[in-house]
């Protein structure tokens, strides 16, 4: 908790450390009521700092009870050092020296889940970003890299498995029922990559032979009851290891790679060297208990953490302002991997929909920051969509500009040049430039300027000259601390379509010949034109193919034009995008009608477009499913000037009902055919099967709106007889949102009874109910908080119930009387004392108050002010609340 005014840390103040730690020797003695940590640090002065008088040594430390500290074997007494809330300061008397410290810490009462803590009966750690300082006195900064040796000692019976980074080098037992293991990590690493686990764990074992022929032991450790849910993660791990060798030439470097699943975890997973620690929701998956989406999430997160071994661990960050160096790059790498393992177009659609809904909202809100932020109060608040997802888009744009081969040359140079170093975003870009002879200096504005650029496009066709000119105008709205922006480098991939839907050859004025039918233009100026020649007819522009830049595109497409692109665009992403834009236009029209009190009337062209998708059985089922999905309420909110929650919900529900009625026959046909296949096919976690179930399930969700008994019966059949969670959960979700109260309650009860011992399945049960827009949503959530399976101490539960309510149940959360806001603020205040990271993330929806009408704005601000006045705030919550009120 904060007792002084919180300090703001600035990138411009960065200084290299005065001292380095060559070796770190740790001993942990784990007990039920306390843990003893002994640390021996072999240190020396940093030769890169100015010589002269020895500066004081300032070791980070928080919530540590100091037992003893010694300098070169001399125990220091009280006057020899100074202790503050987060620092221990002493004066070294030589260039090289050894510090020995002993502290007591309390993992058994650590509810913040940062540092060493207990998840159920096991001990585990989470050190990124600044959690290591809650374990021992240290230079807890990523540019201090050290060789770690770690001994863990615990009672043998309760904690038979004792793990840390690297390789086990010694172990033994004592007479008193305790045992110990020593681990040595041969690679230098920053403290944030340290990990320790102790518990009664079982493991699934496998092995991988690397491209140079070394055999690596692979182990996934879980609580015994989960041992049957590890195969998918293990398969994903092996695929990731192979993929990184092929796509990036990166080989694994230790003899063992371990993953441990824990139930209580603030994020998805953590890339600790050789010992990844995962939220169990990001490891455990089998057909009966995890949906297709969960299977894909496991595959992506296993890959993400594994890829960090190079992009993050071998080459790490100099300071936390460079976080996107590892996160943006690694998200880009895991997206490429998922695209290769599944459907590239579907993966891109999902990523773009997510980015535009959530990252664009962040970039337009009070916490907007650049991909490389300039300052922060609490670094935990900067593990954001901007750093991760927009950061990945920035890396993707570098690849688009340099080409795939050039990008690979750049990444090879980056890894080779900086192996073993803690570096910056500039070093990454420099490697890309040097390997390609390119100049990315203007491009780097993507790292320093916040906000989503707007790109307006106008056109001019000259029939006599047979030329077609596109003019781009870019602008970027002001963001906190950045009133004006310089032009970005915006790669615009485009194609020009002839009237028959074919791609025209693209030749720019001045070029000797056409260069393909889809190409990338780099828009670098505030206003810039490109003229295409040899245009015998006025072409239709397919712009920003594959979403080649994270911008808001402005081009006045007519609905007929969008229908044309939906049918003909050779770029799969833009076919989907045309459908989305058509839906947006139609829904915005309905929203207007609702606001004016008019009768709602749906543009029939949307129905006809969907009908032709449904009737064409040669189309990819996954694409059809994506194209049948209307833009979500959160996206419609993001693109509104002032979001009218009730009108958005009414319009979207009206459209869904009209589509369901008009297309009942083809939906019913596709549903039955796909359900039939599901019934006769064993579950497979592959793209083809995901696609079939996606189409089947979206069809069911429309069909249920008809309220016909044959559909209800089909839904109940699917609920009761499906052999997998994807079908079962969809059936449950559509029942929960249906008027069939008796069937709904029965299904909810049966589901909870059957899965009451599986916490991850119960999370889904909570989410499905928390997200239901039916009236009384808040009261239902409040009741569910009393359910025996719910606890505020488990982040997955908080996200599943409270998070789902505030983020996905917009009509209930934004209730006009403010009760939803009051509820969320109450939870934030309670969680602030338990788990500041979770509290601070949970409050994000309240920070978006500027999006709503005056009455709601006042209510939301009132709750933010109440949080601010509620007492001792963590730096996490303080930063978000104060910035969102500024
Ligand atoms: N480096 C982790 C990842 O993206 C992020 C992470 C895991 C994290 N746990 C955390 C960040 C706790 C902050 C706090 O893979
Ligand atoms: Zn990461």
TrEMBL record:
Domain Peptidase M1 alanyl aminopeptidase Ig-like fold: 451-555
Record has Kinase as a keyword: no
Domain Peptidase M1 alanyl aminopeptidase C-terminal span(s) in chain numbering: 560-886
Enzyme class: hydrolase
Family: Belongs to the peptidase M1 family.
PANTHER family per the UniProt record, alphabetical: PUROMYCIN-SENSITIVE AMINOPEPTIDASE
Protein's name according to its UniProt entry: Aminopeptidase N
Organism name: Stutzerimonas stutzeri (strain A1501)
Lineage: Bacteria, Pseudomonadati, Pseudomonadota, Gammaproteobacteria, Pseudomonadales
Gene transcribed to yield this protein: pepN
